[in-house]
User: What shape does this take?
Amino acid sequence: MKYDSAPILPGSTIGVLGSGQLGRMFAIAARRMGYRVHTFSPDSDTPTGQVADREVTASYDDLDAVREFASQVSVVTFEFENVPAATAAAAGAHAPVRPSGEVLHTTQHRLREKTFLAGARLPITPFTRVTSLTELMEGLVAFGCPAILKTAGWGYDGKGQIRIDSREEARAAWKKLATSEAVLEAFVDFRLEASVVAARGLDGRSVAFPMIENSHSHHILDLSVCPARIPVATQRAGEELARRVLEKLDVVGVLCVEFFVTEGGGLLINELAPRPHNSGHLTIDACVTCQFEQQVRAICGLPLGDTELLRPTAMANLLGDVWSGGEPDWAAACSDPCVKLHLYGKAEARPGRKMGHLTALGTTVEAAAESVAQARRALQRQLQ
Ligand code: AMP
Assistant: This one.
């Protein structure tokens, strides 16, 4: 269905498919601007549901429930990319879905995503499609070892991927991945990882946030700092690449581009996320407009906000592991007045589960990073 491009104004209702922390922070931004928010997911008492006007609990495959949900809102967005295509299509018959189901379709599958990026002549890690052990061996001959084997479909935070260090490991890796379609990637000996969150409005204008530098622990984002500690020209190049991705994909909404920054200062796109991103959480406290307000503006057809970074900033994730010694010492973590606490309202703190984050603004990124690291350590002081 074709929808007009008139802005969806405050007072209207926005529907969110998904109910995690990204939906929660989106709903907070939307409600601050006077919108109502409905959320749809198979769960109840969710991070998004707790702050939404209405929480609908139903399966994504229950297309009648999806249609009913979409018919009560002015626009539908999503907060994670594994929403089935049929769900997005069912919603799209009743309200505009932004970003579109086509954007979801491309970005929820590694092979489709990489094929799109290669076709758009955007810089990516060399890759090849692999559907058998023979093709895997051929790929390893072409790329050399080490190389990274990833499932073509569903995967995030390093899930569904195996590093292969020698050709002898190929058979076991293929067996372990247990899939009929995979992507083999050349190993990138990168200097650091970085991301750019950008938004594109209904009018086709796009705006990027400053590039963020990321470090991971066990494949899960641990610490982000902004601005990234790389030459300004490289940062601007990354921001420009992100805007090109949004344009080529015809995104209306927010999208994050994850990059490898090579030793020589080159940029390779590792992955796209068609939504706000964990690294972009620092924009809430550090930028004139945050990534969630930007998502509201973009999908509602409002002009996009200023993305300027106000001060050097760091963000540290709080995983369920922080609860290993009992309830964390929240007061201790807040004792530095520059540290901001964000918790997502999740009842069960499992290891590796994203429960919240801390953000600090500083005079330098090093000072900000030290503040969040110290506050995170203080949470578990009783263990030390
Ligand atoms: P992904 O799930 O594809 O984002 O990968 C998770 C993490 O694995 C990345 O953030 C990198 O740290 C690492 N990684 C993924 N692909 C490669 C690659 N081709 N070369 C080196 N490291 C990689």
